[in-house]
Amino acid sequence: GAIVRRLSRKAMADLFLIRQSLEGLAASLAATNMARDDCRKSFRAAVAAINEIRKTKSPEKFTEENALLHQIIVELADNPQLATLVHQLQLPLARFQIRSALDQSHRDFSIEEHDKIIAAILAGNPARAGAAMRQHLKRASKQVMMLDDSTFIR
C-alpha cells in the first residue's frame, strides 16, 4: 500500500494543475491511438466495464469507475514515461477522490464529464479529448479546493 501524506492547499492545487496538462495529453494521445484496432478494442472493453460498474450507483463503485477510466486512458496513450508521471501525481489525491465520491452531485458531474471524454476519444478527436480531460480535472480541483482547511496541512 502507498503511504498517502497530507498536502497543503497550495501543493494540492499545483498537483491538479500538472495533472490537467499530463492527463489532457494522455487523453489526446489515446484519441489518436483509436486509429489502431487493438487500442479501440481495449478502450471499448474498458468502457463496457465502466458501464457495468455504473449500474450499481454506489459511491465506492464510483471511485473504482473513476480510477479505471483514468488508468485506461493513460495506458492507451502508449507512453510509459507519461504513465509513470501520472501515477506519481495521482497517489496523493486518492483519499480526496474517495471523499468526493460521497457527494452525489460530484458523481453526476464526473460521469457526465467522463462521457464527454469517452466520446471524444472514441471519435478519435485528440483536441476535444484533451480539452474534456483538462476541464474535468479543473472542476475536480475546484471541488477539492472547497474542502475545509482541516483537510490540508498548513
Primary descriptors:
mainly alpha; 154 residues; 7 helices; single chain
What would you say this structure looks like, in words?
- The chain has 154 residues and is mainly α.
- It is 77% helix and 0% strand.
- It contains seven helices and no strands.
- Helix 1 (9-32) packs across helix 3, helix 2 packs antiparallel against helix 3 (59-77) and helix 3 (59-77) runs parallel beside helix 6 (104-122).
- It is globular, with a radius of gyration of 15 Å.
Topology:
Layout: H1 9-32, H2 37-54, H3 59-77, H4 80-90, H5 94-100, H6 104-122, H7 126-145
Quick rundown:
This protein is mostly helical and 154 residues long. Helix content is 77%, strand content 0%.
Helix/strand-derived class? Answer: mainly alpha
Order of helices and strands: HHHHHHH
Strand content bin: under 5%
Radius of gyration (Å): 15 Å
Distance between the termini: 25 Å
